[in-house]
Amino acid sequence: DIQLTQSPSFLSASVGDRVTITCRASQGISSYLAWYQQKPGKAPKLLIYGASTLQSGVPSRFSGSGSGTEFTLTISSLQPEDFATYYCQQLNSYPYTFGQGTKLEIK
Amino acid sequence: QVTLRESGPALVKPTQTLTLTCTFSGFSLSTSGMCVSWIRQPPGKALEWLARIDWDDDKFYSTSLKTRLTISKDTSKNQVVLTMTNMDPVDTATFYCARGYSASSYSLDVWGKGTTVTVSS
Question: What is the pLDDT of residues A91-102, one digit of tens each?
Answer without folding.
Answer: 999 999 999 999
